[in-house]
Each structure stands twice: as C-alpha cells, then as structure tokens.
Amino acid sequence: MTTATTAAVGAVGLGKVFEGTGRQRIEALQDIDLAIAPGEFVSLIGPSGCGKSTLLRLIGDLITPSSGSLVVNGKTPHQARLDRDYGMVFQQATLLEWRSVRRNVELPLELIELSKAERAARAEAMLDLVDLAEFADHQPWQLSGGMQQRVAIARALAFDPALLLMDEPFGALDEMTRERMQQEVLRIWSRTGKTVVFVTHSIPEAVFLSSRVMVMSARPGRISQVIEVGLGARRDDDTREDQRFYEAITEVREALRHRQGAVGGEPVREATS
Amino acid sequence: MTGWRRYLPPLLAFPAVIALWEVLVRAFGVESFVLARPSAIVSSFVANWRVIRSAGAATLIEAVGGLAVGVVLGVAAALAASRWAGVRRGLVPIATAASAMPIVAVAPIMNQWFTITSPVSKMMVVAVIVFFPVMINTVRGLSEVDPGQLELMQSLASPPRRILTGVRIPSAMPYFFSALKVASALALIGAIVAEYFGGPQDVLGQYIINRANLFAFPDAWAAILVASFIGIGLYLVVSAIERLVMPWHVSMRTGGPP
Ligand SMILES: Nc1ncnc2c1ncn2[C@@H]1O[C@H](COP(=O)(O)OP(=O)(O)OP(=O)(O)O)[C@@H](O)[C@H]1O
Ligand SMILES: [Mg+2]
C-alpha cells in the first residue's frame, strides 16, 4: 500500500478555499486524502466545478493549499516544480502564438537548456508522436483546436517530466483522434513509467486509461469514491469490448449519479451565490 | 483581397477626385484663396521644389527625432512600470491624465527651454506628445497577458526574466505597434504645430504660415501635400517594421500565409 509519504503524489486533509468577499468565498476542495503510487495512472472525474482543475493546480504548485499537506515525489510541490518534475497539459492548449509549432514544443527544452541540436531532435520526435510532423513550421493559429491540443501534449512530453498532469487534454478532439491519442498516452505511459494524473469528463476514457478512477463530488469538492479498474496494464482496442470494461464504466457511472443526486446524503450546501 | 489588388480602389479614386476638384474649381471660378486648383498646386510644387524639399526634410528630421526620443522613453517607462508595481501605480494615472491634455500647448515652453532656434525644441514637443500613448499602450500590452501562458511558464519554473522576454514582450508587441502608428501621425502634427510657434524659417510649418500670409495659397497647399506624403511615408515605414518584427501577428490579422 502506498502511503502519503512514499507516494508520487500524497495528500492528507488537503483543502482549498478561494477567499472572496462574503458569499463569494468558495470552498473548492475539502479534506482530500490521496496516495498515488509512482508510475500509476489515475483519473479524476466529477461534475463541472467540483474542483478537478483546482486539485491538479494544487499538485502542480500553481496555487497553494489552504489546509492539509501535499507531497510530490517526496518533496514539497514547490520544490518539485523548481526541479521541473511537472509536464502540464491545460484545458486550453495555451500555445505561444508568436512561436511556430516546433518552437512551442521546444519551449521547455530551452528552459532546461538543452543544446540546439538536441532540442530539434526531441521536438521532431514529439511532433511525430502526435502526428503533426508536417505542421512543425506552421503557426499555432493555422491549426485546428484538436491539433493545437496535440501540440500542447507534445510540449508536455518533450522534456520527459516525472509527472504528467493533464486537464481534459482530449476535450477538443473527435472520437477517433481521441481514441488514438488515448492509445498514444498509454503507450508513452507504459514505456516511460511516468506517473499520470488525468482529468476527464468521459467515463469510458477514465476507465480505459486508468489503474484507478477517483470520483469527485461538488460543493465542497471531495473524492467520494475510488474505483480500481481491473483491466491489467495492457490495453488495446479489444479492451473496449471487454466485459470488465463495461462493469467498470457502470461502477463509475453509479458513483457519479449517486453523488450528483445527493439524495439521502448530506444536504447540498450552497457555497456560491 | 490579396497583394496589389488591395491598392487598386484608392489608386483609381485618387486621380478621379483630383480631376473632379480641378473641373469644379474651374467651372465655378472659385478664387485661389478659397480653394486652389490642383494644377496650380502642382506648378507651385515644381517651381518651389528646392525650398519645399529642404523644408520637408527639416520637418521630417524633427518629427522622426522626437518620435525616437518619445518612443524610447515611453517604452522604458512602460518596462519600469511593469517591473515595479509602485512605479505603475504612481505613473499610469498621471500619464493617463496627462495624455488628455492638449500637449501642443507646451510648445511655447519647449521653445524657451530648448532654444527656439534649435530643432531640438521641436523634437521635445514631439517627444512629449508621443511619450504618453506609447507608454500607456505598452504598459497595457505588458500586463494584459493570457493568464494561461503565465501559468504555463510558471509550471516550467521559468525565471522571471524569461517570462518578460518570452511572453510579456511578445504579447505587448501588437499594442506597441498600434501605439506607434498613432504616434507617427502625432509626431508630424506636433512638429508642424511647434514650428508655427516660431523658430527657423526653413521648415514646413513656417513655409505654410508665410505663404498663407501672402495669399500664395497654391504654395501653402503644395507644402501641406508634402506634409501628407511624409505622414503616409512614416505610416508605411512603421507598418513595414511591424511586418518584419512580428510576422505572426500581421499574417494572423490578414489571414494570409506567414
Ligand atoms: N481562481 C479562482 N478563484 C475563485 N474561485 C475559483 C478559482 N478557481 C476555481 N474556483 C472555483 O472552484 C471551484 C472548482 O473549480 P475547478 O476549476 O477546479 O472545477 P473543475 O472540476 O475543473 O470544473 P470543470 O470540469 O468545469 O473544468 C468552482 O466553484 C470555481 O468557481
Ligand atoms: Mg477544470
């Protein structure tokens, strides 16, 4: 069993409150305990506004917790960020529009001060991986939303971070591309042994990708249930037809429905206006 | 609308307007002090070519010199304001208020401070006029950065200096250039108005005043025409620099290839 201290990501009693005036105060996350083992692939799923992005941003040290503790690779998240342990893919592609596709992928490589030749080689390989090699010299605005998101994924992978934090990276993709990207991410994951924390709205996606799915509930944001996906490490198109795949999907769906209805549970607290 | 086709309508319209002007002025026998005929303006231009050319050059130097000083100071102030919150809070409201003042009103003062006979006094008027829009726009460009891009740089533990050079300055470029285009027009206005307040005679402002006082209106119009061409020229130069410095933005705007 992974404990909070040996984990790649360990949280105990983690909470986040966005201070505002009066009713604008939002308790985005409350009492989060989690332990993600090194090399594990974990998905966060839950209704919109339940704090998935907030949890990811806490782990990535883009915001600081209001309560509780958080350890990443045995370090504070801040130290982990300074050590460049994080590859982040945001909900928006956030490419720099004055850089070509290639130079966007090279951005983290410039920051870790790789040589020019090495940067070019890595960028090339990463763009190949996301099937955009021929668009290397295009400008971001010449690409579709889904293509831009693939550039962002290539950028996050380029400098080989220990931890991948992905916030709905495939939201803008069509179903076919999405399934191909899922396979790619899985391939990269099994080859490199990275720890991945993956936010999604899609139940099949969460189940297909993850070793565990953490189901979250809203107001205040909590992890309401953790579902082990017993699909083994090897997953391909056949997995999508597997009986166990459907069972896990049903399990996650019920966990979500149970929570969202909040029938018989604690009364729904109105945190926002 | 690509390439030269874009310029076709104005290229056709311009001679048509001139021709109409000539015909109407002749047909109605309008006096030259009311409105000069284009043909009279052109012949004045040819006859006084040397004088107008050297006056135009002198005015151009004042405008460009002042523009350079104003832009350099404006950008420096903007960088300081984006670097230090204190500077920003102190300077930006003052700059906003100051830019609302009719700044040509300082021309007589600049003429005294920097010697009325020296072109520097005209440049300083121009610099003061140019400074505020450049500074205000550049501050806005440096601060109105996509928060997602800042977060990306933060997630990569980018040093602050890289965030400035790699994100803030490129983001500010479109703001800077739109200010620079306005400033290049203001620079010429500033230079000519400053000349109206006195100084050396061999400049466009003085030429226009002197000719108008002598009722030599075609001469005055010829000089005004030269001033317009200088203005257009400055604008084109700024556009060309813009294209050179940030091809990504120009092509994004026009939708063409980079
Ligand atoms: N910077 C912020 N300031 C104030 N409130 C915030 C901030 N960021 C998030 N919140 C609030 O925290 C809650 C959780 O937001 P979060 O973005 O984490 O949700 P999410 O689960 O990622 O939703 P979605 O699936 O729509 O992306 C929301 O109620 C939101 O309003
Ligand atoms: Mg989100």
Features:
heterodimer; A: 273 residues; alpha/beta; six-stranded mixed beta sheet; three-stranded antiparallel beta sheet; 8 helices; disordered C terminus; B: 258 residues; mainly alpha; MetI-like fold; 11 helices; binds adenosine-5'-triphosphate; binds magnesium ion
Record the SSE blueprint.
The complex is a heterodimer of chains A (273) and B (258).
Chain A: E1 9-18, E2 26-36, E3 41-45, H1 52-59, E4 67-72, H2 77-82, E5 86-89, H3 101-111, H4 116-129, H5 145-158, E6 163-167, H6 175-192, E7 195-199, H7 203-209, E8 212-217, E9 222-228, H8 243-261
Parallel strand pairs in A: 3-7, 3-8, 5-6, 6-7
Antiparallel strand pairs in A: 1-2, 1-4, 8-9
Helix pairs in contact in A: 3-4, 3-5, 4-5, 7-8
Chain B: H1 8-27, H2 38-47, H3 49-83, H4 85-100, H5 107-113, H6 119-143, H7 147-155, H8 160-196, H9 204-213, H10 217-245, H11 247-254
Residues 52-53, 91, 167 of chain A line the site of magnesium ion (MG).
What does this structure look like?
- The complex is a heterodimer of chains A (273) and B (258).
- Chain A is α/β, with parallel strands linked by helices.
- Chain A has 8 helices and 9 strands.
- In chain A, strands 5-6-7-3-8-9 form a 6-stranded mixed sheet, sandwiched between helices. Chain A has a 3-stranded antiparallel sheet with strand order 2-1-4, with helices on one face.
- Chain A is globular and about 50 Å long.
- Chain A starts with 8 loop residues before the first strand and ends in a 12-residue tail after the last helix.
- Chain B has 258 residues and is mainly α.
- Chain B has one domain (45-253): MetI-like fold (Orthogonal Bundle), CATH 1.10.3720.10.
- Chain B has 11 helices and no strands.
- Chain B has helices spanning 8-27, 38-47, 49-83, 85-100, 107-113, 119-143, 147-155, 160-196, 204-213, 217-245, 247-254.
- In chain B, helix 3 packs antiparallel against helix 4 (85-100).
- The A-B interface holds A 60, 62, 81-84, 86, 88, 90, 92, 94, 96-99, 107-108, 111, 139, 141 and B 146, 148-149, 151-152, 154-158, 162, 166-167, 170, 173, 246, 248-249, 251-252, 258.
- The structure holds adenosine-5'-triphosphate and magnesium ion (MG).
